[in-house]
């Protein structure tokens, strides 16, 4: 693929674009011209423009290209973005995936909501979409309550985690709701139909996505602004999240095992400053450092020693 010109503090965009460009399913989608089916007139079309960018980048190996259309339309992704200002790469990635998904849904007739169950058949959803299950168990009446939330990426707390697997373990640990955070149960009790009671709550991955995009939450609010957690968090080449899934999420495809293909890094102490770059596994199987217009081959050992901010895994 091509290197990307920095058009004025656009390293946050460039690093995300390189990770998306080397997402195999998205690369195939663009190279086959599938994105052209979604071309519409009028307002900015994130899905079409990403398809055009990916196809152009993969057909321009050894050269540098400028992601001009995406830089010009940053505010179409979020009104908080400002051209020429450093932005948060995770926020950009999330807004970009949301916009691409909504464009997939817009062309469906009759019209459907981007949050509807039917919308989960869109191309973007098939690649990045997953579902979380939240289960609450009332300790008074034994009633179980379940809710399901869709996601295109997952954010993991890493303040007390030494590894991604450790962060997943904390994310899915069973929380006891007691004291000030007691659970209001709507089940039967001796006194009333609704009662505050002790309960347990647990998150699990109910539907494992084909591409697992992870944010390691390094930025935290501190008294004088937004600080950063700079400690190393171990992440494997092969990630097995099977222990953190609910049984329903595994019935159709077996274990949820993933291979690493993208590592996005932030250098600096604030999300509004510093520099972003990434490491991606290209089609030949080689790992490359992609730092704006510079592309350099690196070893797996180098890749696995980074202070990762975003991680991209492809399911086997």
TrEMBL record:
It comes from the Eukaryota. GO terms for molecular function: cysteine-type deubiquitinase activity. Residues 2-316 form the USP domain. It is an enzyme of class 3 (hydrolase). It catalyses: Thiol-dependent hydrolysis of ester, thioester, amide, peptide and isopeptide bonds formed by the C-terminal Gly of ubiquitin (a 76-residue protein attached to proteins as an intracellular targeting signal). Its EC number is 3.4.19.12. Pfam families: UCH (PF00443). GO terms for cellular component: cytosol; nucleus. Coiled coil: none annotated. Belongs to the peptidase C19 family. This is ubiquitinyl hydrolase 1. It comes from Ostreococcus lucimarinus (strain CCE9901).
């Amino acid at each position: 693929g091509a290197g990307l010109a920095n058009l004025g503090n656009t390293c946050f965009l460039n690093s995300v674009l390189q990770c998306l460009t080397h997402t195999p399913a998205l690369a195939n989608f663009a190279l086959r011209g599938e994105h052209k089916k979604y071309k519409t007139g009028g307002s900015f079309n994130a899905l079409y423009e990403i398809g055009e960018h990916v196809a152009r980048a993969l057909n321009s190996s050894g050269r540098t290209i400028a992601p001009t259309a995406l830089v010009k339309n940053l505010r179409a992704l979020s009104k908080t973005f400002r051209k020429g200002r450093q932005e948060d790469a995770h926020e950009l990635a999330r807004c970009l995936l949301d916009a691409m998904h909504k464009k997939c849904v817009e062309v469906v007739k009759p019209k459907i909501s981007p949050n509807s169950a039917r919308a989960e058949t869109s191309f973007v959803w098939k690649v990045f979409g997953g579902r979380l299950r939240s289960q609450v168990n009332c300790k008074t009446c034994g009633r179980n309550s379940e809710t399901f939330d869709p996601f295109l990426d997952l954010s993991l707390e890493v303040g007390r985690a030494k590894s991604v697997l450790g962060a997943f373990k904390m994310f899915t640990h069973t929380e006891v709701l007691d004291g000030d955070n007691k659970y209001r149960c709507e089940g039967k009790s001796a006194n009333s139909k609704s009662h505050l009671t002790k309960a347990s709550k647990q998150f699990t991955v109910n539907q494992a996505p084909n591409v697992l995009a992870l944010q390691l939450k390094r930025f935290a609010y501190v008294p004088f602004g937004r600080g950063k957690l700079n400690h190393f968090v171990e992440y494997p080449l092969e990630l097995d999240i099977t222990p953190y899934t609910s049984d329903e999420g595994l019935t159709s495809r077996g274990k949820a095992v993933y291979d690493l293909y993208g590592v996005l890094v932030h250098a600096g102490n604030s999300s509004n400053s510093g520099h972003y770059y990434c490491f991606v596994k290209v089609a030949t199987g080689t790992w490359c450092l992609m730092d704006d217009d510079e592309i350099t081959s690196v070893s797996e050992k180098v890749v696995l020693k980074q202070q990762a901010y975003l991680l991209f895994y492809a399911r086997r």
